[in-house]
Design a protein that fits this description.
With about 300 residues, this protein is of the alpha+beta class. The chain has a domain at about 1-165. The chain contains eight helices and ten strands. Strands 1, 2, 3, 4, 5, 6, 7, 8, 9 and 10 form a ten-stranded mixed beta sheet that branches. Strand 6, helix 2 (about 105) and strand 7 (about 110-115) form a beta-alpha-beta unit. Helix 5 (about 210-235) runs parallel beside helix 8. It starts with a strand and ends with a helix. About 35% of the residues are buried.
Length: about 300
């Protein structure tokens, strides 16, 4: 029927980039399972998958009562030693038995929720993609948030981040298609200052690559949102040009080198990134922001040189 998920992204609560040994300890959320990592094109580590059992209503735009029983897969990751994410997702399928079965049945299908009742994929997709959802329905945001909280509570973190910023949440839903020759496509919207919604249509055989894509998009949306917020508060605040630039330094040291869209995304779903680069144009806005910061630094340097020679 469909696949949906939610990603929470925030600044790791540590004053410096987290080294690998500490990263492995922070992400060791499941005893006996390995933390996976890669160093190219940037440092990235991801926890083992966690399972959460659910038995609740599924969100439906029509308001229908659709019961969902199964498990949600969640995981945490750290990128560049600075940015942490908590992610949860599940595949929704129609229950063939159309009744609740024993938990042993659901545990053999990790990350799958069976919909009991008259379930329509489009109805559930629209309900999940809404900015708000009724009480008592499946809350993937709570699962993702708890996963990220487990990372941020680690005793290996010194709880002195280089600057303060908000988390962002990205809710995504994928409708699979069997039409031949169709490329993955998506629409992205900013629902609230901290919530984004991504709706995708993806060839069925490529649905498995979507989780990495959505986490990557959530990461870059957070980077851009955070940089814009820091620029607004720093460059428009009181003080001399040098003081305003100094307020931006933590962001320069922490964020600018992390911008690498689609670096870990499967080629089959890269058309989604490419379409989002055309509109709304993440990289264009990022590069314009970075250029503005560099211009301010250049002007600040020139002012210092002029004062030194005066």
């Amino acid at each position: 029927m469909l696949t949906f998920g939610e990603v929470h992204t925030g600044l790791l609560q540590n004053s410096t980039s987290l080294p690998w040994d500490a990263t492995a300890e922070v992400l060791n959320l499941l005893v006996g399972e390995q933390v996976r990592r890669s160093e190219r094109p940037m440092a990235y580590a991801v926890s083992p998958n966690l399972l959460t059992s659910v038995d609740c209503r599924l969100p439906a735009a029509s308001g229908k009562v659709i019961r969902g029983v199964g498990t949600v897969v969640s995981r945490a990751s750290i990128t560049g030693g600075h940015v942490a994410q908590g992610s949860g997702h599940a595949v929704v399928v129609k229950s063939t038995a159309n009744r609740r079965l024993s938990w042993s049945h659901y545990l053999t299908r990790p990350g799958t929720i069976e919909a009991i009742g008259k379930a329509v994929g489009g109805d559930i997709a629209r309900g999940f993609a809404g900015a708000s959802q009724p009480m008592g329905t499946l809350d993937l945001g709570a699962i993702s948030g708890r996963t990220l909280d487990a990372v941020q509570r680690s005793t290996r973190l010194d709880r002195h981040p280089p600057f303060r910023t908000q988390r962002t949440h990205m809710r995504w839903v994928v409708t699979p298609t069997d039409e031949p020759g169709v490329e993955a496509t998506g629409t992205f919207r900013v629902a609230t200052p901290t919530l984004r919604v991504l709706e995708l249509v993806v060839p069925r055989e490529h649905v498995g690559a979507i989780v990495d894509l959505c986490e990557d998009l959530a990461l870059h949306d957070w980077l851009l949102t955070t940089l814009l917020a820091l620029m607004e508060s720093s460059l428009t605040g009181p003080g001399t040009r040098a003081q305003r630039i100094a307020r931006l330094r933590p962001a320069i040291d922490t964020l600018l080198h992390l911008w690498m869209p689609a670096a870990r995304v499967d080629e089959a779903v890269q058309p989604v990134w490419q379409s989002l680069e055309r509109r709304p144009g993440f990289t264009r806005q990022w590069e314009a922001s970075v250029s503005r910061i560099r211009d301010q630094m250049t002007l600040g340097t020139l002012a210092l040189l002029e004062s030194a020679t005066a």
